[in-house]
Amino acid sequence: MKKFLGALVALGLSGALWAQEASAPAMADAASAVAAVVAASEPAMAVPAPAAASEAAAAAPVAPKFDKGDTAWMMVATLLVILMTVPGLALFYGGLVRAKNMLSVLMQVLVTFSLIVVLWVLYGYSLAFTEGNAFIGGTDRLMLKGIWDSVAGTFAPAATFSKGVVIPEIVFAAFQATFAGITCCLIVGAFAERIKFSAVLAFSAIWFTFSYLPVAHMVWFWMGPDAYTSAAGADALTQKAGLIWQWGALDFAGGTVVHINAAVAGLVGAYMVGKRVGYGRDAIVPHSLPLTMTGAALLWVGWFGFNAGSALEANGFAALAFINTFVATAAAVLAWCAGEALHRGKASMLGAASGAVAGLVAITPACGNVGLGGALVIGVLAGLAGLWGVTVLKKWLGADDSLDVFGVHGVCGILGALLTGVFNSPALGGPSAMGDWVTASMIAPDAYSIGTQFLAQAKAVALTVVWSAVVSYVAFKLVDLTLGLRVTEEEEREGLDIASHGETAYSR
């Protein structure tokens, strides 16, 4: 842990703190929105005179209604994130381990994802996306109660980022479940090939509850745009949001909630589980780069749902997130290959696939918050930063981070979160940030401060790093004291496929 604490200090001194944009809003004052839908659907008890009727119509607020296009897009985006995880992440990780551990990684990803989806429905969604305090939500949506409104005869609405536009809350809940699931699955790559299967599941449940849910609430929960009706009450509404949202940090699709959060947990786990038998002495190489390439390709495809879906509507910001995800990833692939060629004389398939993931990670918090120029710069820097993370930084940290979770997701997540605050500026081609939710107006170009936004991003990154580190340490310690973290040396040498699951990936 001394090395880990030293790494945190170094990250802080180097300014490598990262943050995220608040991109997936929570329910938009669901009770009032449902009431509006109900009022709009109930027959009038009396027919007013034409003049009175027109005056009433002019004065009445427009009731939010579901748009079929937005709803369809969000269901497709949800499916794409599932594709990212199973099979995308599973194959990417599976190809990187030795053949004797292939099935163990596939199992860890599949079963962890399934576990988190169930916990999400039981209590996770409620604690992340209902009103509570600045750190955690409440219990209004335990078991997703209230998602169906029997009085109104319809599903409860969830806010998007546009006034008067909502999607079914049940779709929003499903979309966010995939985020929680893939975040916990990312962590397993840091201690692959030597951890007990039961320990993975126990740790995931604890960490999900005490790290993922609070960070998601702090970054993404707010009262929704329709709640902001007057300047007088705006500050009070903002005080009901998550702490990082109150700070004004931007995270469009999960730079802090997903990537930094998971990467720090993975690094702590790599230290606490210990190094693999033979690490630094024996050759430990990927057993199937074609599978890794296939997984990376599926990750790239699925990431469009991850990033563009975080707009919560089929609109221009979804399109911006889409194209930025496209170009930043391509730029990162080229940058990683170029850096690798300069460093070791050859560009590798593993490097190209890793570069793609590095670009995807870095653009995640920025995808709907920067222009194309900013996305290209972020992509190039991510490719180079990721290469540095898995070579230079990894050696300095001294941890056996098996599949470079921190080197890629941590380093590039921090980079992307910080650069979001820079390239969000209208002066650098960004769309700016929301300045007034009452009037739905953006901060004017001459009023935008890169320094102020960068500071908000850095604060969010710092809080996420410390929060995840503390929770991860406690969670791993609890699991170690109860179940034990690591398999025996004999089981590790035999391979976890046989030792933990009694089967093999390939016939012998």
From TrEMBL:
It is a multi-pass membrane protein. Residues 1-19 form the signal peptide. The chain crosses the membrane at residues 72-93, 105-123, 170-192, 199-223, 243-272, 284-305, 317-337, 349-366, 372-393, 405-423, 454-476. PROSITE patterns: AMMONIUM_TRANSP. SUPFAM superfamilies: Ammonium transporter (SSF111352). Gene3D superfamilies: Ammonium transporter AmtB like domains. Residues 72-506 form the Ammonium transporter AmtB-like domain. GO terms for molecular function: ammonium channel activity. Keywords: Ammonia transport, Membrane, Signal, Transmembrane, Transmembrane helix, Transport. Pfam families: Ammonium_transp (PF00909). It is found in: Cell membrane; Membrane. The keyword Signal applies. GO terms for cellular component: plasma membrane. Belongs to the ammonia transporter channel (TC 1.A.11.2) family. NCBIfam families: amt (TIGR00836). This is Ammonium transporter. It comes from Inhella gelatinilytica. The lineage of its organism: Bacteria, Pseudomonadati, Pseudomonadota, Betaproteobacteria, Burkholderiales. The gene is amt.
